[in-house]
Amino acid sequence: MNEKLKKLNQQLAKSEARLRRAQHEEKILEHQMKQLTRKERTHRLCTRGAMLESFLIRPEVLTDDDVMDILKQAFSQTGMKEAVAESVKQRVAGEPLTK
Asked: Coiled-coil segments, which residues (predicted)?
C-alpha cells in the first residue's frame, strides 16, 4: 500500500509540474499574441498615416488640429459616410469592392 501511495504522489508531482509548465507557456503565447496585435496595429497606423500624408500639401507644416479639421470636412461631404459604411459592409461580408 505504501508503494502505491508513493507512486501516486510521484505521478501527482509530475502532473503538477507539467501543469505549471503549460500555464507558463500559455502566458508566453498570450504575450506573443498581444505583441503581434500591437505590431499589426502599428504597421496599419503607419501605412494609413502615410496614405493620408500623400494627399496633403506640405504635411510637415500642418498641425494635428489642422489635419483633424481637414478630415472632418472631408468625411462630412455628402455620401462619404455611406461610402465608408458600404466599404466596411462589403469587407465584413467578404464581397469584392466595386469601384
From this structure: 2-39
Rounded CA separation 82/79 (Å): 5
Quote the crossing angle between the two packed helices 80-93 and 64-75, to the nearest 10°: 80
- Number of residues that make up the chain: 99
**The model's pTM:** 0.57
| Other CB atoms within 10 Å distance of the CB of residue 86 | 13
Confidence band, pLDDT 50/70/90 cuts, at residue 93: confident
* 40 and 77, same domain (yes or no): no
CB 77 within 8 A of CB 71: no
Residue 86: domain span: 63-99
